[in-house]
Amino acid sequence: MAPTKYLDRPIPVISLANFESRVDEITRQLCSAAEDVGFFCITDHGIPLASIDEMFDWSSRFFALPDSVKATVPFTNNAGWEKNAQIRPSTGAADRKESYQMQFGAHMDGLWLPDETLPDFKPSALGFMHRVQGVSEKLMVCFARGLGFDDGYFTRAHDVGRPESQTVCRLIHYFEVPSDNGRNGGEVWHRSGAHADWAFLTLLFQKQGQSGLEICPGREVSTSFGYGDTWTKVEPSSTGAIICNIGDLLMSWSDDRFKSTFHRVKAPTEPEDYYGERYSIAFFNQPCHDALIQGPKKHYPPVTGAEFTRNAMSLYYSHMAKSSAKRAKLEESAPVVLAT
């Protein structure tokens, strides 16, 4: 396998300190990052490092439970536990991971483990989710201003207090990878193949020392999944900084002004890569089912949040159907590391 090509690009770091008095400055910084890179790092967001570490501890405790216990809260209607079930069109294979996806309100009925199995997990998880939602809403105010909408435009569309909410928080556990991964004709263990998120905005927490996240900035890359392009490593922070990326929804909602960016958690194949277990927490801002989505310039026809989700899933499965033939052509014309 040919080595991945890398470029050390700077990722914008944006502080939310003194938000009320700096909102215009922060808006300019966020819009610039969304236009030029599609990824940025948020600091001074108000979530204590101890709270983030506590959520990672809960994640470890949840995933340490026997599969038979986790299987009592199976993935249903975009919530619950799954294992080795997410197949990426970019690899044609399942990510070697397990995840537990949580939503707000009644969406989780029957999908929380009983308190005697994991005491206090539910209130702790919901408390963390509400804190992250608070950070998201600050970012939404800025993006609304940057696009000429009123301050509450995006927060109303992503109101997690409504039964129509689709926003989710995903705990992710990547399994340890064999030290000879993909070499000598052996099987390739994929972590998370190259993809762009379909939703509004993703807030990602990484655990220090567990590297692997890489980005391919800009939506206009050489191929549909960044094959042949240069990638940039995004190392975990020791301070609790949040890595954020634009999703396809915000790209559409901004009339393509903001860029949804390809990213992946690279399957380790080189000696310097990280092969151990990897934990992360992803918070996906997804619009309410009945939210009306159309950019200020009306570049695309209006759709509801439910319609956008349905269209995104249809496109995903369309990619899946074509992935085998497409990968064969890509490998022939631009051979790169297949373990993405």
TrEMBL record:
InterPro entries: DIOX_N (IPR026992), IPNS-like_FE2OG_OXY (IPR044861), IPNS-like_sf (IPR027443), Iron_ascorbate_oxido_reductase (IPR050231), Oxoglu/Fe-dep_dioxygenase_dom (IPR005123). GO terms for molecular function: metal ion binding; oxidoreductase activity. Keywords: Iron, Metal-binding, Oxidoreductase. It comes from the Eukaryota. It holds the Pfam family DIOX_N. Residues 165-287 form the Fe2OG dioxygenase domain. GO terms for biological process: small molecule biosynthetic process. Belongs to the iron/ascorbate-dependent oxidoreductase family. This is Fe2OG dioxygenase domain-containing protein. The lineage of its organism: Eukaryota, Fungi, Dikarya, Ascomycota, Pezizomycotina.
